[in-house]
Amino acid sequence: MKATSLVFASCFCLIAAAAASQAAEKPNILLVMVDDMGWMDLHCQGNEKLRSPRIDALAKQGERFTSAYAAAPVCSPTRAALITGLAPARLHITQHGADGPQFWPKDRRVQPPATGFELSHATTTLAERLKASGYATGFFGKWHLGDDKKFWPTEHGFDVNLGGCGYGGPPTYFDPYRIPSLPPRKTGEYLSERLADEAIEFMRREQGEPMFVCLWTYNVHYPFEAPADLTAHYEGQEGPGLINPIYGGQVEATDRAVGRVLDELDRLGIADETLVIFTSDNGGWLGATDNRPLREGKGHLYEGGLRVPLIIRWPGVTEAGAVNETPVVSMDLTATILDAAGVRLPEDDSLDGETLRPLFKDETLQRDALYFHYPHFAFHQDNRPGSSIRSGKYKLILWYDDDSVELYDLEQDLSEQENLAASLPEVSQKLKTQLVGWLEETKAGLPEKRK
């Protein structure tokens, strides 16, 4: 009997070890993307006013990137880029929703190009690739890639969609939300808590199979609404780092909801088998937050519009508490997820991002530049249409209204105050040529001069 028991126990251990190995080969993936969260909107990013203990703890467990960029300074292009791995310029989705006269200043010197705002079915999404590889796929939150239901998440590879539609922001954060893809449940319930509940229920239901969970929160986007118990802490603290107490409450509500989902990974015993990525879709809106020391905010090609928080916890791969200064961009997250899941692209397919795995082994990425294209006027009409390139320490912006350029040394001038274009003409010309070449290669839509 003892011998039989030992043989059975040994077999069980081998089976368990094999199962663990298989789980490591196909980790669960939790992709959290917050809406409009600026680079300085977390305590771990250096904001002493805001409380974000759960996300701060995630940063201590994983790797925090200090030079992470959204694919665009507004939401829809970044969302399309992350879910496909392709640059907004290549997708021809470069504006936050349908562009139109409501965004165009009357005295504008250029006319923005036509742009799409619906995610074409000609593209292949991250969810579709993972689903084909055996993943259960769930989407919870903001989509903003098409008003028609035929463009919603379940038509792009997700098994479940709760919250995803054409809305760029919620009519309200309190139930009834009036979001067509999220039925009312409990009057007064806060939206971030509801989305966390739905993500948790999905994970409980699908545990045992590899899962891809997108928690793309509507927070911290306008309107300014937060639970009263969280807002109260920030009242009277307005100043550097906080311009609106309610916004502080929204940040903390987001932190609390994300923390609940992370706790569920622990309760299910799958935290060590789950790749967690936390980021934002663009820089902070200046009507809501303080992006300093970065210049400007959402809708601008300056750092305040593009640079975002990024935290990656990949058990067995990332180093706890590490801080990485390498410039990375949204499409890199797509490539990293596919790498983690062991999904290989067809030979005739490619992405505009690179897997970040080499960085976790103290190696370097292959590319030499990041590119950004925003040829539109944002909703606030306070920006200039342009394109940008970041190569090493230098960043060049090309403006379409007068064909001028600005050049900044981000290592010495993070706030982009000293334009070096005139003093470093060779660097400016080299980067401009490289940027124009990329725009041609992607067939990017360009503004036209108005007569």
UniProtKB/TrEMBL annotation:
Signal peptide residue numbers: 1-23
SUPFAM superfamilies xref list: Alkaline phosphatase-like
Domain Sulfatase N-terminal residues, every copy: 27-343
InterPro entries membership: Alkaline_phosphatase_core_sf, Sulfatase, Sulfatase_CS, Sulfatase_N
Record organism: Blastopirellula marina
Pfam family, one: Sulfatase
Protein name: N-acetylgalactosamine-6-sulfatase
MF annotations from Gene Ontology: arylsulfatase activity; metal ion binding
Family label: Belongs to the sulfatase family.
Gene3D superfamilies hit by this protein: 3.30.1120.10, Alkaline Phosphatase, subunit A (3.40.720.10)
TM spans (from-to): none
Assigned keywords, A-Z: Calcium, Hydrolase, Metal-binding, Signal
The keyword Metal-binding is assigned to this record: yes
